[in-house]
Amino acid sequence: MLEWVLEIRKHIRVGLFFMRGHLAAQMEYRANFVTGIAMEIGYLLVKLMYAFVIYRSGTTVMGLTPDEVLLFTGTFVMMTGIYAGLIMMNLFALRHLIRDGTLDLYITKPVSLQFMITMRRSDLGLMLVDGLAGLAIIVVALVRLGSTFSLWRLFGFAGYMVAGGMAAYGLIVLPNLLGFWFPGTDIATFTDPFWDFNSMPMGIYHRAVQDIGMIVLPIFLVTNFSALYLMDKLTPAMAVWGMVAPLLLLMLTRLVFKRAIRRYESASG
C-alpha cells in the first residue's frame, strides 16, 4: 500500500514538473500565449451563444428551466478546459510519437509510459479560461436556483467532476490507442463531435441514446452527473454508476494500452 502511495506522489510531482516546464516554454513567446487565451475566450463566447438564446427566451428544455440548463452549461465548460488543455494536446501528438519513433525515448524513462505520453503536455491558459468561466456559470446558476451551499455538497460535486474527468480520459484515450495498430489514422480529429454530446443536458436525447451514453459509451458521465448531483436528480443507481464506471474505464484503458505497446515497433525496427 505504501508503495502505491509513493508511486502516486512521484507521478504527481512529475506532472507538476511537466506543467511548469510547458508553461515556461509558452511564456518564451508571450504574444502567442496571450493570443491563445484570446482565441479560447472567443471560442467560449461562441459556445455560450446557444445557452444565452435559451436563457433569454425562458424556454424549458425537457422540463429543465433556463437556470438548470445554465448549470449543465457550466459543468460542460469547466470540463472542456481539462479536455482541450490537457487530454487532447497529448493525443494529437500521439500518432507522431508512434510514426517517427520518438516514443523510444519515453520508454526508457523511470515513469509510467502511459502517464508520460498522455499527460506530459498542458496548456494552463486554456484550462484557466474554461475553468474559471465554467465555475462562474455554475455559481450564478446555483444562486438563481436558490440552492444551499454546504461542504458536503461541495465534496460531492468535486467527486463527480473528478469521476467525469476519469471517464473523459478513458473515453478519449481508448480510441486513440488504435494508432498503434493503424499509425496513419488521425483518430483524434473525430473525438470533438463525440465530446460535444455533453454541450446540452442528456435529457434532450432519445431514451436509447441516453442509455448508450450512460452505459455502453458513458460520455454523459463526464459532465451531466455532476450537474444532476447539484440538482438532487441523481437516482441511487446513477449515483453508484457515476463512480464505478470511470474506474472500470480506467482499468480497460490500462489493459488496452499494455496490449497496444506490445504492438509498437521502435524506430530501430
Please characterize this protein's 3D structure.
With 269 residues, the protein is an all-alpha fold. It has one domain (2-263). Helices cover 74% and strands 0% of the residues. It is built from eleven helices and no strands. It has helices at 2-27, 30-57, 66-100, 103-107, 113-119, 124-145, 151-176, 191-195, 207-216, 224-230, 236-263. It is globular, with a radius of gyration of 19 Å. It starts with a helix and ends in a 6-residue tail after the last helix.
The biggest sheet amounts to:
none
What integer value in Å does the Rg equal?
Answer: 19 Å
The total beta strand count reads 0
Please report the distance between the alpha carbons of the first and last residues: 38 Å
Which structural category fits the helices and strands? mainly alpha
Number of domains: 1
Output the helix-strand order. Answer: HHHHHHHHHHH
**Number of distinct helices:** 11
Secondary structure: helix percent: over 70%
* Large-scale geometry: globular
Proportion of β residues? Answer: under 5%
Low-confidence stretches: none
Q: What does the average pLDDT come to?
A: 82
Topology (elements, then pairings):
Layout: H1 2-27, H2 30-57, H3 66-100, H4 103-107, H5 113-119, H6 124-145, H7 151-176, H8 191-195, H9 207-216, H10 224-230, H11 236-263
Helix pairs in contact: 2-3, 2-6, 3-6, 3-7, 3-10, 7-10, 7-11
